[in-house]
Design goal:
Layout: E1 9-24, E2 34-48, E3 51-65, E4 68-81, E5 86-102, E6 105-123, E7 126-137, E8 146-157
Length: about 170
């Protein structure tokens, strides 16, 4: 049986919220102002026990301060291990496309890199997770790039299937 066969996969809808600390690249100030990120999307998980490979796609909205906003399409890939109901994983991804404004300075970005590490806890069809991440916003226009750091708290739920699979 292939790792990509339907019997080895499950799909989930996920919602995440993250406090986000950010600063401009080259900024010598030690402060990291606080903003937030919220996103909703889907994740597919392929399992070859005890290992798993997952990928997700979701739009995310970031409000970094009262004059700085970004809308991104996140594409992420993770590798992990099943340890009973707990699944630690590491991964990375990209913000495929981002539209942003930082203090009236507009920009777009493509393929901004992101690295993550975290874990999930399974409770039936419900998954609860937390992931720490870092992302570099490579701004095409504007005065500087930005480094984002956050801790995403996630809730995932598997839709019911006719076969009863989750």
């Amino acid at each position: 049986m292939s790792v990509w066969s339907p019997e080895r996969q499950d799909r989930r809808f996920e919602l995440h919220f993250a406090p986000v600390w950010y600063r401009g690249i080259g900024n010598r100030d030690a402060r990291w102002p606080l903003g937030f990120e919220i996103g909703f999307g889907s994740r597919s998980v392929a399992r070859v026990r005890p290992f798993l490979l997952s990928w997700s796609s979701e739009p995310a909205f970031r409000a970094l301060d009262s004059k700085s906003f970004a809308l991104s399409i996140l594409q992420r890939v993770f590798a992990g291990v099943e340890l009973g109901p707990i699944e630690p994983e590491v991964g990375g991804g990209v913000s495929m496309l981002t539209l942003d404004v930082f203090h009236a300075n507009y920009s777009i970005e493509m393929a901004s890199p992101r690295a993550e590490a975290g874990a999930w806890l399974h409770i039936g069809a419900l998954r609860l997770g937390a992931h720490a991440y870092g992302e570099l916003l490579w701004r095409w226009f504007g005065d500087r790039d930005y480094l984002l750091r956050g801790v995403a708290f996630e809730v995932g739920i598997a839709p019911s299937t006719p076969e009863g699979r989750q």
